[in-house]
# Entry
Amino acid sequence: MATVTNWIDHLSAEEVQGAVYPGVGSEGILVIVLLVIWVGWHVITANAESKHLDELARKRHGANDHKSNITEW
# Structure
């Protein structure tokens, strides 16, 4: 197993020059993909919650209906 004693010399060597880790330069694309997923998640969640609240509003439960043991509360 090789031991590195001087990182500056090691990283500037001809056989090592360039990428230190895979995917160098794709960070911008990954950030854009993450933003699209993040905004999409919020849109999907907002639509699902709105649908659920609309269903509850259509049932027109009263403030005291939970006292009557209504199972679909």
Observations:
- Residues 27-55 form one domain.
- The mean pLDDT is 81.
- The radius of gyration is 28 Å.
- The chain is about 50% helix and 0% strand.
